Amino acid sequence: MNDWRVDLDGMVQESIAFGKSVAIEPPKLRTIVEPNRLPPVNLHSSERQEIRQRVSNFMAHQERFSRERGEFAASQMKRMLWGGRDPAAFGGSGS
């Protein structure tokens, strides 16, 4: 009957020794770091300039497409009217 008590006392002593050997560090205080703030930037003028540039590019793109469509339509009409033959050979203007 004493055997289990000896084992229990040994385990208790071992647990107490283990608990004393473990060092518990106090929690570290956390410091709050403020982020570097960028100076305010006036984006309205640059955004407007970017919008103007994009609109200008878009209009130039549309004008180019319109011109290319017109040239293609003229070349197709010419091809249909003259059947692939040279209009200059028939006294046509060729344009």
State the distance separating the first and last CA atoms. 121 Å
Q: Bin the helical content.
A: 55-70%
Mean pLDDT: 81
- Quaternary structure: single chain
List the total number of helices: 2
User: What is Rg?
Assistant: 45 Å
**What string gives the helices and strands in order?**
HH
Structural class: mainly alpha
What are the segments in which pLDDT stays under 50 over at least 5 consecutive residues? none
Biggest β-sheet: count, sense, barrel? Answer: none
- Report the strand count: 0
- Residues in β-strands, percent: under 5%
The global form is elongated
Characterization of the model:
With 95 residues, the chain is mainly alpha-helical. It has a domain at 63-87. 63% of the residues lie in helices and 0% in strands. The chain has helices at residues 2-21, 43-82. It is elongated, with a radius of gyration of 45 Å. The mean pLDDT is 81.
List keywords for this structure.
mainly alpha, 63% helix
Give the topology, please.
Layout: H1 2-21, H2 43-82
In short:
The protein has 95 residues and is mainly α. The chain is built from two helices and no strands.
